[in-house]
């Protein structure tokens, strides 16, 4: 492979190891690398998931991020910490601000609350080589936040991410480098299921083709992969050779919104007659976000998941006569879909709604028969109150009933305690 025609950058992929657990350890003046600490989503629920475990807890007891609270061993040294998402977000933002001292904001691509890419092109005179900069950044994060970072260095985002996942996390230094010429040695022996972007279903499909390692994938026929998997097949082939042409500089913070949706897994099984309250609350949140971005949608989707032992559920959609971002409009269509497709007697555990086929608010035509300006003014007034004083500052009466979830959810971020 001649790599001279492909882009070559200095890219870091930084992962804050056991991030939630590390933040909780630091709050308690514990060493994140030696303390036995588990972060639990909700300590009031035995079945709640373990969101993070400290490295020492993983090593000693085999606790993983799919373990449940009740599965934790009875070890008096284990510290149980309830999740505080607000704290993790604050530390994540502060770390991003630290990185901004090294590079301009357009060189930072935040992937998740605990992982991001950094493009170092043109910073050599300021901070040294990519390896030197990675070591400095790693030391700064540890000194200022008590969090250990693993850092991959590559010629593009893919190489930086994969060498971080596969090699940096296993090395004492926590830093690993993979250039184009290193791909056969460092990446080809790796099983495909360990490669970022290859899920279980794709793994099974590739295994049936005799493709077990990344090296096998690199030497497969690109035409055959493309014919079988389309654009994804072509991308898999190029990734196997370490090639990734995705942008390394730009505004990665906000991308064009395709839909406004909201969903929830309920804390208990709900009866059919209780669900309209949940649907209304979800429509309220989806439409609030659409109004914030001055968008209106033409199509409403409703998905319902039944509880055991029935399982299953349904997902249906319906369109407005003209685009809208009013809660009452979306709620009306969702209720129609619910009453038409709900199987009576089935208890419900999952509900989600979304508003799609978006238009700019000013581009939509006013209905000849309806003047909704007063409804829009009222909705925006309610949005403003919630923005200034919190989501529970003004509520619909149904949210105060036993079926309402808004008050409970207002204390959480991402479904976990703030």
Automatic annotation (TrEMBL):
Any GO molecular function: damaged DNA binding
Q: Which InterPro entries match?
A: DNA/RNA_pol_sf, DNA_pol_Y-fam_lit_finger_sf, DNA_pol_Y-fam_little_finger, DNA_polymerase-Y, PolY_HhH_motif, Rev_trsase/Diguanyl_cyclase, UmuC
PROSITE patterns recorded for this chain? UMUC (PS50173)
Assigned keywords, A-Z? DNA damage, DNA-directed DNA polymerase, Mutator protein, Nucleotidyltransferase, Transferase
What Pfam family is a match, any one?
A: IMS_HHH
* UmuC domain location: 11-199
Q: Does the keyword Phosphoprotein apply?
A: no
Q: Which GO terms describe its cellular component?
A: cytosol
One GO biological process from the UniProt record? SOS response
Q: Which family does it belong to?
A: Belongs to the DNA polymerase type-Y family.
Protein name stated in the entry: DNA polymerase V
